[in-house]
Design brief:
Helix content is 44%, strand content 13%. It is α/β, with parallel strands linked by helices and 1448 residues long. α11 runs antiparallel to α12, α28 packs antiparallel against α34 and α29 runs antiparallel to α38.
Length: 1448
C-alpha cells in the first residue's frame, strides 16, 4: 500500500518539474496539459450528477496521517481467507490510538479494494468488485476520501440520498468505491434498489448506540437473503475496551448474530522472522544417471520401485551428483530389503557390492560439467557466505527424507560443516532456534511454513529458494503475507504444549504440493479417509489435529489468547498426552495411550484422535494430507494394444472409487435415508461401512419427469449384532438378485453396503427402528412365500404393496398387484394371450402353460377372485433425462390366479425404491470421484458441483456435462494467456502473438498437460450400464453342469466330455472376470475429450475463485499459463510495453465520447489514443492498434461468455451460436459505426476512407429497411449487417479500444466492464437473440435440433384459405411453435421464431421430449448383444461339428 503513495508522490514531483520547465503548447496533450484545452474541456463538459460530491484538496497533514493509518491497517485487516462469505470483522479501538476513526476505516477499505483487483473477476453481475463504505457522518470526511482517491488512483464517489436507481447502477459500474451516509443507504434499500449482488465489500461504521445500524441490518438481511453471492461485511466500532473480556465477547457475539455472520478479530503486531524470496531459473530436466540405469537393469523384479521415485525427485531438485550420492547413502537399506525378499543370495550381494564400489562423482559447482541444480548451487553459496561472517550455521528445511539424505551427502562431499538439515515432518521434534533458515523450495502448506518460522529466531531470516515459475512466485508471496498473521501465535506454537492457531492452516492462496515418501519406523497401519483416499500416518497425525482444531476455533467467538493444545501427564514410560479441543468440537478433551516419551505420546494421541474423528465423520478433507497421483496414471497406453501414439483415442488407467474398499468395523454401520420425491416410492435405509459425506440433492428421471432424491446421512455409528448383520446380508442379496434377475453372490464381509426397509415416521435413526422380525427375518427363510388365504380382506393400499410372481423360482417374471378383481374367477374367459390363442378359462390357460402337468393337483378354489397385475419393469438408467421404458409388444390386461402365485418377500414400494439403487450408487460414486480429484489436485478449492460437471462427458447422456463449462474455460484461458504473452513478448506482432497463444491453449497442449498430471484417470466418460451392473464386492454365479449319474460316470467318453465342459466354463468365467476388471480399471478417451475437460475445469475454477484460482489450477494441471501481473518484474502499463510518451494524443471530442461511454475519466488517454491508429505508412510500427486488438479480442470473448452464463439453462450449442454472433467481425463493425468510433480513426489511406464511407451509407440503408420490415411483420429487428461487405479495421478498432481501456486502467476490468455494459450490451439485446440470430431462423432451429441428435422433427404446412397459411413445428409429435401469415415463407419464419422463443423460455424442453440419443444408444447396445450372441452361436456350431458339446 505504501508503494501506491510513493508512486503518487513521484508523479506529483514529476508534474511539478514539468510545469516549471518551459515547453511549447504544441508539445502538450490536448486533454491533460494544455491549459487552454483543459479550460475549454471544463467549460464544455456536462455537469456531474447532483448525487456526487466534488472533493476538496488534500493537505499534507491529512496525507501523512492517512499513510500512518494504512501502515496500521496492513497489520489489522486481512481479507485473504474470506472467500466471499458474509463475515463480521469487529475492531475495538481506543480514541488515543486513532485520532480520526473514519480515516482508519477508509484506509481499511482502500486496502481491501486494492487487494480485490488482484483477486480477479467473479462470475456475477458487472461491478461485482465495487466496495461500499457507510459512515455515521460521511459529509465530514470528504477530504479523507479525496486523499484515498489521490493516493491509489481509485474511482471514488460520495453518494447522496436523492440518487436515482439509474444513477446508482451507473455509479456502481463506473467506480471502485462508493461512500454514503447510513440513512441514505436505508432509504435506497427501502426504495427497492438492487444492492448486495453489486458489491464485494460493505464497510460499516457503528457508533456507541448503533440504532441506525439496527434498522439497517433488518433491511440488509432481508435484501441479502434474495441473492446467492453475499458480500463481505466489515463492521468497525469506535469504543474503549471493556474491562470485562467476557462482556466484550458477548457484545461481539450479539453484533454477529444481528448481521448473521461470523467474526474476525484483529491481531496485535509481533515481530517475526524476515522473509527473503530468492528466485532461480528452472534449469533443464535431467535424464537418469548411469548409476540409476545400472541399478534398474540389475533389479529385474523391480523391488526398488519406491527408491526410483525418490531418486528421480532428488535428481530434478538437486542434480545428477546428488542422485548418485543418494544411492550410495541408501546402500545398507537396499541390501537389507533385497535380502528380505530373495534371501542373502547373489542378487542382494551383487546390488550391494555394485552400489558400494561405484565411484560417485564430486559435486561440480561451475564449468560446463556442472552437475548440480541452480537451487543447490545457490544454497551452497549462501551457506559459505554465512560461514564467513558468522560461526553459527543455518538450518536447511527439506521436503522429505530422500532430499535430506542427499543434502547431507553433498555437504559432506563439499566439506560444509555446521549445517543442520531437517525434514519438514520432523520440525516439531527439533529443539532450539536458528538465526537463519533456508527452505529448499516451498513448504507443503501453511502449517509446514509455520514450523519453519518457529525454528528461526525473531530478527532472523527465512529464505525461500523458489523457481521463476509464476505459480511458485504467487505462493511465496502468499506465504510472506501469512507470516504477519502468524506472528502472535508462533511463540506459543514453539512450546511443547503448542497452541490453537488463530487462522486456517490451509491457506487459500497456497496450492500445496505433496511431500513425497516418508520413512516409517513402525508398522502401524495408516488411517485412510474413504471419501478422498487420503491416508494419515502416525507422523502426519499431529498436522491433521492442528488444522482440525484451528478450523473449529475459527467458528466461534474466542479471545485473543492462545490456549494450549497439548497437556502431558506422567513420566518415563507412562507419559500420556491430552488434547484440548474448542467447545464446538465433537468432544472437549481426548487422552491418548501411554508412551515412553513426550513426542511418542503426542503422536499416539493425535493418531488415536484422528481415528475417532474419522469414525464420527468429522474429518474435513482440507485438514488431511494431500494424496499423490499414482505414476501409473500419468502416461497413456496405446488403444487396443497398438503402439501408434498419434491416434485420436487412447486407453488410459481409470481411477476407482476407494470408499467401498475400506471397512472400519465389522459390526459398525452408518445409516443414510434415501428419500424419493415421487408417489409409490418408500424411503429406504442405506447402510455403509464408513460414514457418507454430505451428498448434494440430485435428480432422477421417470419418463422424462424429474424426481428429487435426498440422501440424509447420520454420522453416528450404528452397532449391529452378528445375527442382525447376517439378516441385513440376506435381505440385501434378496433385493439385489431380485431386481437384477441375475445370480450373483457376496459374503457379509465383502459387501460394501446394505439396504433395509424404513418404517413410516420421522423418528431418530437407530437399530431398533429396523423391522427385523416383520420384514428382514422372513427374507432369511426364502425369497417367496405363499399368498395368504386372507388376501380378500386386505385393503387396496395393502394389495398394491405386494409383488407376486407366477412361478416359485427365484429368477422369473414379477408383477405389481393393481387390484383384486372379484368379478373374475379362474373359470372366467381370459383375453387372448400374446400369441393370439384364446382359452376358455384362466384355469385352462394356466394348465396349458404348466411344464410338469402330472404334478399338478388342480385348484382348491375355482371361484376365488383374480389378481389384476402389471409387469414389473427391469432396471433402467434413471440418470438419462429422456430415457423411456420399452413398451411391451402386447399390452392386454394381465390376470393371475392367487392360489398358484408366489408372494415376493419384499414389499412393492420398497422394491421400487431398490430398483433405483444402480442410479443412486452411480451418483454417489461420481461425488466420491469429484472429492478425490478435488483433494488430490486442487486442495479442495474448486466447488464440487462445478467440478463434477466439468469432468462429466456428454457420453454419459446425463443431465449435466462439461459443454457449457468448456466454453467458459476456453474464454478464460484465451484472456489470461493473451495478457501474459503481451507482457512477455514486447516485440512480437499480432500474428506472432496468436501463434504463441495457440501453443498454450491448443488441444494438443492441453491434452499433453492433462496426461502428465494424471487427470484422465478421473474423467467420467462411461455411462451406467444396468445390464452389466454388479454391486461392489459381488461376483456373478455361473450355472454349473449337473453331476453325472453313476452310469455316465463309468463311461470314459462321457466323463472326459464332462470334465472338458467344466474346464471350458472355468476358463470362460476367468476371462469374464478379467474383462470386468479391465473395464473397471481402464477406459478409452479421445484427445479432444481430455482437452475439453481441462478447459471445463479451468471454467469451474474461474467460477469458484476467480483469476488467482485459475492460475493455481492451471499450475496443478501442468498448463503453461502465467499471470500477466507477475509475468514481468514491473507492473501496470510498463509491463505491457506501451510507450505512452510516443503514443498519439487523444483528441478532445474523442476523449469526451469515451469518458461518457465509460462513465468516468480515462486515466491514460495516450494509451487509448493508440487504439485508433490504423497501421498505415504514416504511423510508426509500435503505435498501431494491432497489439491492443490482440488482447482486446480475448477480453471481449471472456466478457461475452460471462454474460451469456447468466442464462443458466441454455445449452452449449445455443451459447456458442450467441457468442459467435456477438464477437463476429461483422457485428463489431456495425457497432463501431453505431457508436461513432469510426469518425476518430487516424488513417491516411484514401481507399480505406472511401470503403468506410461506402459501408456506413449501406449500413444505414440496411438499418432502415430492416426496421421497417420488422415493424410491418410485428417482430424484433434482426441483424441487418450480415449481407454487407465491411472494412475489417472497424471491428479491429472496437477490440483495440477494449484492450486499451484494460491496460490504461492498470489491468483493471472496471472501465472495460462499464464500456461493455453501456455500449455493447444494449446493442446485443436489441439485435442478437436466439430468434434473431439470422434473417432465416429456420436454419438456427435446425442447428439446435440437430445438435441434440433429434430425429423426429417436422414443419407442417396448412392452407387455411386464400392468402392464409399456417405452419406448425413439431418435435416428437409435440407442438413447439405455430404461426399464420399471408405467405408460406412468412408463416414458416414466424413459426420457427415461435419455436425458438419456446426453447428459450422452456430450457429443458428438448431433454424431456427427445429420447433419440438414448434410443440410439440402446440400439447400439442391442446390436452389440446380438453380435455377441451370433458369435457364441457360431462357436457353438463349430464345436458341435467337431464332436464337442455346445455351451449354449
Amino acid at each position: 500500500m505504501l508503494s501506491l503513495w510513493h508512486k503518487s508522490e513521484e508523479a506529483a514531483s514529476q508534474r511539478a518539474a514539468i510545469a516549471a520547465s518551459p515547453r511549447k503548447i504544441s508539445q502538450l496533450d490536448d486533454t491533460e496539459e494544455n491549459p487552454r484545452s483543459a479550460k475549454r474541456a471544463r467549460r464544455d463538459q456536462p455537469e456531474r450528477a447532483a448525487a456526487v460530491t466534488k472533493f476538496k484538496p488534500v493537505t499534507d497533514r491529512q496525507r501523512a496521517q492517512l499513510i500512518g493509518q494504512i501502515e496500521l491497517c496492513d497489520m489489522l485487516a486481512s481479507f485473504d481467507d474470506w472467500h466471499g462469505e458474509l463475515r463480521l470483522a469487529t475492531v475495538w479501538l481506543s480514541v488515543t490510538i486513532f485520532a480520526e476513526f473514519s480515516t482508519f476505516l477508509t484506509a481499511v477499505v482502500l486496502r481491501f479494494t486494492e487487494a480485490e483487483r488482484d483477486f480477479g473477476l467473479r462470475l456475477a453481475l458487472p461491478g461485482r468488485r465495487c466496495s461500499l463504505l457507510v459512515l455515521e457522518d460521511a459529509a465530514d470526511h470528504a477530504s479523507h476520501i479525496a486523499a484515498l482517491s489521490e493516493a491509489s488512483a481509485l474511482n471514488i464517489a460520495f453518494v447522496h440520498e436523492s440518487i436515482t436507481s439509474h444513477d446508482w447502477t451507473r455509479h456502481v459500474l463506473s467506480h471502485d468505491l462508493l461512500v454514503l451516509h447510513a440513512a441514505a443507504l436505508v432509504a435506497l434499500l427501502e426504495r427497492g434498489v438492487a444492492f448486495p449482488q453489486h458489491f464485494s465489500l460493505i464497510a460499516l461504521e457503528v457508533g456507541q448506540d448503533g440504532e441506525t445500524f439496527r434498522h439497517l441490518s433488518n433491511v440488509l438481511r432481508t435484501t441479502a437473503s434474495q441473492v446467492s453471492l453475499l458480500p463481505r461485511l466489515f463492521v468497525a466500532r469506535l469504543q474503549k475496551r471493556s474491562a470485562d473480556p467476557y462482556q466484550e465477547a458477548l457484545q461481539n457475539d450479539s453484533l454477529a448474530k444481528l448481521f448473521k455472520c461470523s467474526i474476525w478479530e484483529e491481531e496485535h503486531h509481533c515481530q517475526h522472522p524476515r522473509i527473503e524470496l530468492v528466485q532461480l531459473p528452472n534449469g533443464l530436466k535431467h535424464l537418469p544417471t548411469r548409476l540409476t540405469r545400472e541399478i534398474l537393469v540389475r533389479d529385474g523384479d523391480h523391488i526398488l520401485s519406491s527408491y526410483y521415485v525418490m531418486a528421480e525427485e532428488v535428481l530434478q531438485t538437486l542434480g545428477p551428483c546428488a542422485a548418485d550420492l543418494f544411492w550410495k547413502a541408501q546402500q545398507p537399506e537396499i541390501h537389507a530389503l533385497v535380502g528380505s525378499q530373495h534371501g542373502e543370495g547373489s542378487m542382494a550381494r551383487d546390488l550391494a557390492s555394485f552400489i558400494q564400489d561405484y565411484l560417485a562423482p564430486v559435486p561440480l559447482l561451475d564449468g560446463p560439467d556442472m552437475n548440480v541444480t541452480p537451487k543447490l548451487l545457490e544454497l551452497v553459496h549462501r551457506m559459505k557466505a554465512r560461514h564467513e561472517v558468522n560461526t553459527q550455521g543455518p538450518v536447511v528445511f527439506a521436503r522429505n527424507y530422500s532430499i535430506a539424505s542427499a543434502l547431507n551427502s553433498v555437504f559432506i562431499a563439499l566439506a560444509v560443516n555446521q549445517v543442520k538439515v531437517v525434514v519438514l515432518s520432523d520440525l516439531l521434534e527439533v529443539e532450539g532456534s536458528f538465526s537463519m533458515g533456508i527452505c529448499l523450495g516451498l513448504p507443503d502448506d501453511a502449517l509446514s511454513y509455520a514450523k519453519c518460522l518457529s525454528l528461526v529466531s525473531n530478527g532472523g531470516s527465512l529464505m525461500l529458494l523458489i523457481s521463476d515459475a509464476a505459480a511458485e512466485r504467487r505462493t511465496a508471496v502468499a506465504y510472506a503475507h501469512l507470516a504477519e498473521r502468524m506472528a502472535n501465535w508462533l511463540p506459543y506454537f514453539k512450546t511443547v504444549e503448542s497452541a490453537i492457531a488463530p487462522t486456517a492452516l490451509y491457506h487459500p492462496s497456497v496450492m500445496s504440493q505433496t511431500s513425497g515418501t516418508r520413512r516409517r519406523d513402525d508398522a502401524t497401519e495408516d488411517i485412510v479417509d474413504p471419501s478422498t483416499g487420503s491416508s494419515i500416518s502416525v507422523e502426519s497425525a499431529g498436522d491433521v489435529i492442528h488444522r482440525t482444531v484451528a478450523r473449529y476455533a475459527m467458528q466461534q467467538v474466542h479471545s485473543r489468547e492462545f490456549p494450549p493444545l497439548f497437556e502431558y501427564a506422567g513420566s518415563g514410560d507412562c507419559t500420556t498426552c491430552t488434547i484440548a479441543l474448542p467447545p464446538n468440537a465433537p468432544l472437549r478433551t481426548f487422552t491418548g495411550p501411554p508412551r515412553p516419551s513426550i513426542t511418542a505420546a503426542r503422536q499416539s494421541a493425535c493418531f488415536a484422535l484422528c481415528r475417532l474423528l474419522r469414525e464420527l465423520g468429522q474429518l474435513d478433507p482440507r485438514d488431511l494430507p494431500r494424496t499423490t497421483v499414482a505414476q501409473a496414471y500419468r502416461s497413456p497406453m496405446p488403444c487396443d494394444g497398438r503402439p501408434d501414439l498419434n491416434m485420436a483415442f487412447h486407453r488410459y488407467p481409470r481411477q476407482c472409487v476407494v470408499f467401498w474398499d475400506y471397512t472400519l468395523s465389522r459390526h459398525m454401520l452408518y445409516a443414510a435415508v434415501l428419500r424419493i420425491d415421487r408417489n409409490g416410492y418408500k424411503p429406504m435405509l442405506f447402510l455403509t461401512r464408513a460414514p457418507l459425506p454430505t451428498i448434494p440433492t440430485f435428480r432422477l428421471f421417470f419418463e422424462g419427469t424429474p424426481a428429487t432424491i435426498d440422501i440424509l446421512n447420520d454420522t453416528s455409528p450404528m452397532t449391529v449384532s452378528e445375527e442382525q448383520l447376517e439378516m441385513l446380508h440376506v435381505y440385501t442379496l434378496r433385493i439385489l438378485r431380485g431386481m437384477a434377475n441375475k445370480s450373483f453372490s457376496a459374503s457379509a464381509a465383502s459387501m460394501s453396503y446394505f439396504v433395509a426397509p424404513l418404517p413410516e415416521g420421522d423418528g431418530q435413526l437407530s437399530v431398533d427402528r429396523i423391522p427385523w422380525e416383520t420384514e428382514l427375518r422372513p427374507a432369511t427363510l426364502g425369497w417367496v412365500t405363499a399368498v395368504p388365504d386372507s388376501i380378500g380382506s386386505l385393503s387396496d393400499e395393502a394389495l398394491q404393496d405386494i409383488v407376486v410372481q407366477d412361478r416359485w423360482g427365484e429368477f422369473t417374471r414379477r408383477f405389481y398387484v393393481i387390484g383384486l378383481r372379484r368379478d373374475l374367477s379362474p373359470l372366467s374367459r381370459p383375453p387372448p394371450d400374446a400369441l393370439g390363442v384364446q382359452y376358455e378359462s384362466f384355469k385352462e390357460q394356466y394348465e396349458a402353460h404348466l411344464k410338469d402337468k402330472a404334478s399338478s393337483s388342480g385348484l382348491k378354489d375355482e371361484h376365488q377372485p383374480m389378481f389384476e397385475v402389471d409387469r414389473l419393469p427391469g432396471l433402467i438408467n434413471r440418470l438419462v433425462p429422456a430415457v423411456r421404458s420399452m413398451p411391451p409388444e402386447v399390452a392386454p390386461p394381465k390376470f393371475l390366479i392367487p392360489e398358484v402365485c408366489a408372494k415376493f418377500v419384499v414389499s412393492a414400494r420398497t422394491f421400487k425404491t431398490a430398483q433405483l439403487l444402480p442410479s443412486l450408487v452411480r451418483c454417489v460414486e461420481d461425488v466420491f470421484m469429484t472429492k478425490m480429484l478435488n483433494h488430490a489436485f486442487f486442495n479442495n478449492e474448486i466447488s464440487e458441483l462445478h467440478l463434477l460437471t466439468a469432468i462429466s462427458c456428454p457420453s454419459l447422456c446425463g443431465e449435466n456435462n462439461y459443454d457449457r463449462l468448456e466454453l467458459l474455460g476456453d474464454a478464460v484461458l484465451k484472456w489470461l494467456s493473451s495478457c501474459a504473452l503481451l507482457v512477455r513478448y514486447p516485440d512480437l506482432t499480432e500474428g506472432q502473438l496468436h501463434t504463441e497463444r495457440q501453443k498454450i491453449i491448443s488441444n494438443a497442449t492441453l491434452t499433453k498437460a492433462a496426461c502428465e498430471s494424471g487427470l484422465p484417470a478421473f474423467i467420467l466418460s462411461r455411462p451406467l450400464s444396468v445390464k452389466s451392473w454388479l454391486p461392489p464386492g459381488s461376483e456373478f454365479e455361473q450355472p454349473r453342469p449337473k453331476p453325472l449319474s453313476a452310469e455316465d460316470a463309468s463311461d470314459p467318453t462321457k466323463l472326459a466330455a464332462y470334465q472338458n465342459s467344466i474346464q471350458r466354463q472355468e476358463k470362460g468365467d476367468a476371462m469374464a472376470r478379467a474383462r470386468r476388471l479391465q473395464d473397471s480399471s481402464e477406459h478409452v478417451l479421445g484427445d479432444k475429450v481430455i482437452a475439453d475437460v481441462t478447459e471445463a475445469i479451468i471454467g469451474a475454477a474461474f467460477l469458484s475463485g476467480g483469476k488467482n484460482l485459475v492460475l493455481r489450477v492451471a499450475s496443478r494441471l501442468s498448463v503453461p499459463l502465467e499471470d500477466y501481473i507477475t509475468a514481468n518484474s514491473s507492473n501496470g502499463i510498463q509491463s505491457f510495453h506501451i510507450a505512452a510518451s510516443t503514443s498519439a494524443s487523444l483528441h478532445l471530442d474523442t476523449s469526451q465520447i469515451l469518458n461518457a461511454l465509460v462513465g468516468r475519466e480515462i486515466k491514460h488517454p495516450r494509451i487509448v489514443a493508440q487504439a485508433f491508429n490504423y497501421p498505415g505508412p504514416s504511423i510508426a510500427k509500435g503505435n498501431t492498434y494491432q497489439r491492443l486488438e490482440f488482447v482486446g479480442d480475448a477480453i471481449l470473448d471472456m466478457l461475452v461468455v460471462r454474460r451469456l452464463w447468466q442464462h443458466e439453462q441454455l445449452d452449449q450449442e445455443a451459447l456458442t451460436l450467441l457468442k459467435a454472433a456477438m464477437v463476429e467481425n461483422r457485428t463489431l463493425a456495425a457497432l463501431c459505426v453505431r457508436t461513432g468510433l469510426h469518425d476518430h480513426i487516424v488513417q491516411h489511406v484514401p481507399s480505406v476512407r472511401d470503403r468506410v464511407q461506402t459501408y456506413c451509407h449501406a449500413l444505414q440503408l440496411a438499418h432502415d429497411a430492416e426496421h421497417a420490415l420488422a415493424q410491418s411483420e410485428d417482430r424484433a429487428p434482426a441483424q441487418y449487417w450480415l449481407e454487407l461487405d465491411f472494412p475489417k479495421l472497424l471491428s479491429d478498432v472496437v477490440e483495440a479500444v477494449i484492450g486499451a481501456l484494460f491496460i490504461s486502467e492498470n489491468c483493471d476490468l472496471g472501465a472495460v466492464e462499464a464500456f461493455f455494459e453501456a455500449v455493447m450490451v444494449p446493442f446485443y439485446d436489441e439485435y442478437i437473440r436466439l430468434d434473431t440470430l439470422s434473417p432465416h431462423p429456420t436454419s438456427i432451429l435446425l442447428k439446435i435440433i440437430e445438435a441434440s441428435s433429434c430425429q423426429s422433427f417436422d414443419i407442417k404446412k396448412t392452407i387455411l384459405g386464400p392468402s392464409h397459411h399456417r405452419n406448425d413445428v413439431f418435435v416428437h409429435g409435440l407442438l413447439l411453435g405455430t404461426a399464420t401469415a399471408s405467405t408460406v415463407a412468412t408463416a414458416a419464419r414466424k413459426a420457427c421464431i415461435a419455436a425458438l422463443d419456446t426453447l428459450q423460455r422452456d430450457k429443458g424442453f428438448l431433454r424431456r421430449a427427445c429420447d433419440c440419443k438414448a434410443t440410439q444408444l440402446q440400439a447400439r447396445q442391442m446390436k452389440n448383444v446380438e453380435k455377441s450372441k451370433a458369435s457364441k452361436s457360431r462357436k457353438g456350431g463349430k464345436k458341435a461339428a467337431t464332436g464337442q458339446p455346445s455351451q449354449l
